[in-house]
């Protein structure tokens, strides 16, 4: 799997995890809000909601049915009470039941209290349901303060001479303690008298106002009860503060449902923000840290620092103590390996560049010396010939001229070698080729090289093949190659060195190999590696360096231009073997 696919998979997984966490946060927030809404609804209207939940959540134990403790606590919080009746009207279970509540009900008695045809100090709510083979009858009672106060006010209220409303002492004291008020309205809905009424309560009502205040008591903060006198057409209003509102913070202007919604949505948004922050930090650590590390490595490479940036312990940041990739770097394995390879390549190229620069400087020094030496001789003899104070003989002039000609020829050779190396580097091709029988051609060429006085008493042992070998080549270049290799063998080895030249076929019998093997001093590894490099002058432990340093580079370039290749093997004290391989045009005779 490449880095593109790995990144795609990782980002998909990250987005999926983020989505799951966000959905979980949203789900928890919604669940919390639903629970709070349910609690608010239970506190507002336990009779219609809580009784059903009591039956649904009940469990049958050894002593009968057991109800949810939280719902029973809500009964008590609402200042209500609860009774469970059997089919004969007997109370089986009770909770928070006042002393004035019966322990047994006749069928007609319970219905009379429920329908309010008989006076009863509590408002009753019934819930009947069968569960586990038994018939449940739950009686939920809440003290009906409004109805009691309304009856007391209607039966004993009056107005004094100033028009102030006078209530029975018991009713007045109860209203004061509960924070309620009384209004007496005429047939048009206008207030005739009031008791303990807050300033924000209106003095006049329309049909809609009175209906809305009766239905939506939570909106207006008061529960009200009304009584209309058909004969006098006046209306009594008794109002008490809502129980839930009185227990809540009176300074809050928002309904409890709105507060729950605000808290729930805020918590959900905060959880989502936290998820995104955590995932962002994780992504920065998981994806950003390796990228910053790779950028730091690239910057180090630009400053020619090729080692991977290390941690405080000196280890590469991408590796653990065992040398394995750290988890967050495994995704970028391809990139890290490419950077490592780039660092090695740049290091190698920089090393080669420094070596080449050193070789170039050495060669320039050498070639400058080689050019200055014959030029100094030419200049010196030219001054001698131009000096009028001497009368040179014909023999002396001829000697001076020969020396000047020899030195100028050497300079011309050096310059031609330098030009040849650059022509080969730019892609030189032989001007024309011809078929040559290699065995006899080498016999003649090696004989001429052995007679060259520059090589002293050259000892060359030549071993041709028994068959004729025909190659297509450009003979001036091939002659230059052989001469350079012979010169390299004798100029850089002791005088008694023996050079053995032999021919052999490659295993495919399509290429012929010319082998130049000497028993000289040999070369060390560094010299062998730079043998065919331009500007490189090899040295050994016996002789000083000689030549332009271009001969072997020219030989290698010419061999490759003729379609062949050259290799060298050598060890100090064991001589040198150079193999030149060319494609053969044809062979005759032999096996």
From TrEMBL:
Subcellular locations according to the entry: Membrane
InterPro entries linked: BphY/WalK/GraS-like, HATPase_C_sf, HATPase_dom, His_kinase_dom, HisK_dim/P_dom, HisK_dim/P_sf, Sig_transdc_His_kin-like_C
GO biological process: cellular response to phosphate starvation
GO cellular component: plasma membrane
Reactions it catalyzes: ATP + protein L-histidine = ADP + protein N-phospho-L-histidine
Bilayer-spanning residue ranges: 12-34, 260-284
GO molecular function: ATP binding; phosphoprotein phosphatase activity; phosphorelay sensor kinase activity
Top-tier EC class: transferase
E.C. no: 2.7.13.3
Listed CDD domains: HATPase (cd00075), HisKA (cd00082)
Key words of the record: ATP-binding, Kinase, Membrane, Nucleotide-binding, Phosphoprotein, Transferase, Transmembrane, Transmembrane helix, Two-component regulatory system
One Pfam short name: HisKA
Protein name: histidine kinase
Coiled-coil stretches: none
Ranges where the Histidine kinase domain occurs: 366-586
Domain of life of the organism encoding this protein: Bacteria
């Amino acid at each position: 799997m490449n880095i593109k696919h790995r990144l795609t998979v990782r980002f998909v997984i990250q987005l999926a995890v983020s989505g799951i966490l966000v959905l979980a946060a949203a789900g928890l927030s919604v669940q919390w809000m639903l629970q709070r809404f349910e609690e608010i609804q239970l506190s507002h209207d336990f009779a219609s909601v809580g009784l059903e939940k009591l039956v649904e959540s009940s469990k049958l134990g050894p002593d009968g049915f057991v109800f949810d403790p939280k719902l029973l606590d809500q009964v008590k919080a609402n200042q209500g009470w609860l009774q469970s009746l059997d089919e004969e009207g007997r109370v089986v279970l009770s909770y928070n039941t006042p002393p004035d509540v019966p322990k047994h009900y006749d069928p007609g008695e319970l219905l009379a209290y429920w329908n309010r045809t008989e006076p009863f100090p509590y408002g009753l709510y019934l819930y009947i349901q069968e569960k586990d083979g038994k018939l449940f009858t739950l009686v939920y009672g809440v003290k009906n303060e409004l109805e009691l106060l309304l009856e007391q006010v209607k039966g004993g209220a009056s107005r004094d001479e100033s028009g102030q409303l006078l209530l029975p002492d018991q009713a007045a004291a109860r209203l004061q303690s509960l924070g309620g008020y009384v209004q007496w309205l005429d047939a048009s809905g206008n207030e005739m008298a009031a008791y303990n009424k807050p300033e924000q309560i209106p003095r006049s009502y329309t049909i809609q106002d009175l209906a809305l205040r009766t239905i939506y008591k939570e909106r207006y903060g008061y529960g009200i009860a009304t009584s209309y006198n058909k004969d006098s057409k006046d209306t009594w209003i008794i109002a008490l503060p809502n129980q839930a509102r009185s227990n809540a913070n009176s300074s809050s202007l928002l309904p409890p449902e709105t507060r729950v919604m605000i808290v729930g949505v805020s918590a959900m948004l905060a959880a989502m923000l936290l998820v995104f922050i955590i995932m962002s930090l994780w992504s920065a650590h998981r994806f950003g840290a390796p990228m910053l590390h790779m950028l730091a490595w690239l910057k180090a490479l630009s400053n020619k620092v090729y080692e991977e940036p290390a941690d405080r312990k000196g280890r590469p940041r991408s590796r653990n103590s065992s040398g394995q990739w750290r988890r967050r770097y495994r995704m970028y394995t391809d990139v890290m390996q490419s950077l490592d390879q780039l660092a090695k390549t740049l290091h190698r190229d920089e090393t080669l560049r420094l070596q080449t620069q050193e070789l170039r400087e050495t060669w320039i020094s050498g070639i400058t010396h080689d050019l200055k030496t014959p030029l100094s001789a030419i200049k010196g003899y030219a001054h001698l010939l131009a000096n009028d104070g001497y009368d040179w003989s014909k023999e002396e002039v001829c000697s001076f001229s020969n020396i000047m000609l020899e030195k100028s020829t050497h300079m011309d050779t050096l310059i031609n070698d330098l030009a040849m190396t650059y022509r080969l580097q730019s892609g030189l091709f032989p001007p024309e080729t011809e078929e040559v029988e290699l065995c006899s051609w080498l016999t003649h060429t090696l004989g001429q090289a052995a007679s060259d006085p520059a090589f002293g008493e050259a000892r060359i042992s030549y071993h041709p093949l028994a068959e004729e070998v025909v190659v297509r080549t450009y003979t001036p270049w091939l002659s230059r190659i052989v001469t350079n290799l012979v010169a390299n063998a004798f100029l850089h080895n002791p005088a008694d060195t023996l050079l053995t030249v032999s021919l052999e076929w490659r295993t495919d019998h399509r290429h012929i190999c010319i082998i130049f093997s000497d028993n000289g001093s040999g070369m060390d590894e560094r010299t062998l590696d730079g043998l065919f490099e331009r500007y490189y002058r090899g040295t050994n432990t016996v002789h000083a360096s000689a030549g332009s340093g271009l001969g072997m580079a020219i030989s290698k370039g010419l061999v490759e231009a003729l379609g062949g290749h050259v290799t060298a093997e050598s060890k100090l004290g064991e001589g040198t073997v150079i193999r030149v391989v060319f494609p053969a045009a044809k062979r005759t005779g032999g096996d």
